[in-house]
Design brief:
mainly beta, about 350 residues
């Protein structure tokens, strides 16, 4: 997977080789010189854990890096690995903190908007809020009975978690019980995202649906049906109230193993577009910063870029392996593609 730095021309990637890498890309159109310079000098962030107790038996064991997120100011990168350790690095690749409480695979990491806290979700069923200045656990949330698959902040003190136990909890720092629990899905909940205002939570599940929730109601305000297989991920467009594009209507995108991406009117619950040119499961979607386009990546090795307005396919790129992550740069001029064969592609996008 990959993550663009929100302020600097940096792109971070992580993989099963026990490393994260930070690539520096100069602004402007992609050229062979820019690519060769970036490939020569990435910062390599090594993830190893110590095994054994004595000086003669201690060994370093490499661990897959499974989650990552930049803070809002672009000064710190958080990574999580399969040994349950989270780490915080500066933008130059120096390790600042090791966060040790989880006992299994970390599935999700999210910085709070203020940057004071980091939220993690793990296969040990726990969600943990960390104090990022000290590297210590601020509070442990032990509400799920199955792995915590995704997390998302609502504001600086409140957040949501979802799990294989089919439940979604809304939690708040300082409180020992969830402030709300949503239980409408009939299979594991894969992904959750708050809308730009933090008023509506979108969720998607292996039950082939996405749902919209408000904190003051235990039932979904919209039940979005139409996919034929598991819905793997959900994303809000950067439009509507609370966003950087408030004059444009808010939309929700869902991606599914049924090879399609769907765009939804969240007020009516109607499907506006079905984007159906992929030949295999769609694992990742990302809106352009202006909300005009959406990129999708699939096991068919294709990155497709679509017009949100009419659903037209405007650009396509064939990768060298199955695409498991796509992400748009904050300036909107580049799309990053992470492939299963350990390659990363940076695509120029200028219409």
């Amino acid at each position: 997977m990959g993550s663009w730095n929100p302020k600097l021309p940096l792109f971070a990637t992580c993989a099963g080789d026990a490393t994260a890498r930070v690539w520096r890309l100069q602004p402007g159109p992609i050229t062979s010189k820019i690519v060769s310079e970036a490939a020569k000098q990435p910062s390599v962030l090594k993830h190893t854990s110590i095994q054994g107790n004595s000086s003669t038996t201690k060994t370093e064991r490499a661990k897959e890096v499974t989650a990552m997120d930049w803070n809002g100011s672009g000064t710190l990168l958080a990574t999580g690995s399969s040994d349950g350790l989270a780490r915080i690095w500066d933008a130059k690749g120096n390790l600042k903190h090791k966060l040790q409480k989880h006992t299994s695979h970390i599935f999700a990491l999210k910085w709070s908007k203020s940057g004071d806290y980091l939220l993690s979700g793990s296969a040990d069923n726990l969600a943990i809020v960390w104090d990022t200045s000290s590297g210590t656990a601020k509070q442990i949330f032990d509400f799920h009975t199955h792995p915590c698959l995704d997390v998302d902040w609502r504001n600086n003190t409140s957040f949501a978690t979802c799990s294989g136990d089919m439940l979604i909890h809304v939690c708040e720092l300082g409180k020992t019980k969830p402030v709300a629990t949503f239980s409408g899905h009939s299979s594991e909940v894969n992904s959750i995202r708050w809308d730009p205002q933090g008023q509506i939570l979108a969720s998607c599940s292996d039950d082939k649906t996405a749902k919209l929730w408000r904190i003051d109601s235990s039932k979904p305000v919209q039940d979005l049906k139409g996919h034929d297989l598991d819905v793997y991920t959900v994303r809000w467009s950067p439009t509507g109230p609370g966003s950087k594009n408030p004059s444009k209507p808010a939309l929700l995108a869902t991606a599914s193993f049924d090879r399609t991406v769907k765009l939804w009117d969240t007020s009516s619950g109607n499907c506006l577009q079905t984007l159906d040119r992929h030949e295999e499961a769609v694992y990742s979607i990302s809106f352009s910063p202006d909300g005009e386009y959406i990129a999708s990546g699939s096991l068919d090795r294709c990155l497709n870029i679509w017009s949100v307005k009419d659903g037209a396919l405007v650009k396509s790129y064939k990768g060298s392996g199955s695409i498991n992550d796509v992400s748009w740069s904050s300036g909107g001029e580049r799309v990053a593609v992470c492939c299963s064969d350990n390659t990363v592609a940076i695509i120029d996008f200028r219409m």
